[in-house]
Amino acid sequence: ETGVTQSPTHLIKTRGQQVTLRCSSQSGHNTVSWYQQALGQGPQFIFQYYREEENGRGNFPPRFSGLQFPNYSSELNVNALELDDSALYLCASSVGTSGGWEQYFGPGTRLTVT
Amino acid sequence: DAKTTQPNSMESNEEEPVHLPCNHSTISGTDYIHWYRQLPSQGPEYVIHGLTSNVNNRMASLAIAEDRKSSTLILHRATLRDAAVYYCTTDGGGADGLTFGKGTHLIIQP
Predict the structure, then answer these.
(1) B-contacting residues of A 67-106, CB under 8 Å?
(2) Integer CA distances (angstroms), A80 to A7, A63, A77, in order
(3) Mind listing the pLDDT tens digit for each residue in A92-102?
(4) Which of A45, A46, A88, A94 has the most B C-beta neighbours within 10 Å, making it the best mutation to test the interface with B?
(5) Within chain A, how many helices (H) and strands (E) appear?
(6) What does the pLDDT look like over B89-106, one tens digit per residue?
């Protein structure tokens, strides 16, 4: 059984640019959530996708957007990058959206904005 | 999801039990209590979760207070590999995701 994978591992972008991060969910999981983790902080919820639809969103501006594909893989897009967007971006997959399901996290993508 | 409060750090000795506390006084009746841990440069790893009753799995035990306003993660016999940041979170399901605080940095002394 393949776990959650993310690409790329590291990325350096310039302020104002756009970035796309990718996530492959664990086999059998139809729900993907994205989190942003600043240095020394806990992860912060960005949004969740369930069966290709955005199912919920945290306190992040519209320049953070996403997609989920029929195979349940997902993308996180960030437009007009700001220096504060520098963080570890994590995706997590689960079997469903109920609070009773555990989430399985990928290793993350480290984004640096200069 | 309820806000959680945990000690910033705890220290324990190898091969001894560890009790990690968490307060979640604003938890609602349908929120699950989840614990995750994170090693440096890795994503969080699921540890255990529960709703009302105490739970056991191969990694740990979760003791939930009767009023559900607090819980304790129990590592029965700590090893050096258990050194990590432990996050207590709540999850009401649906669209809110997991709400993480800063977690407890667990240090294991050999």
Answers:
(1) 90, 92, 97-100, 102-106
(2) 20, 7, 10
(3) 999 887 778 88
(4) A45
(5) 0, 11
(6) 988 776 778 888 889 999
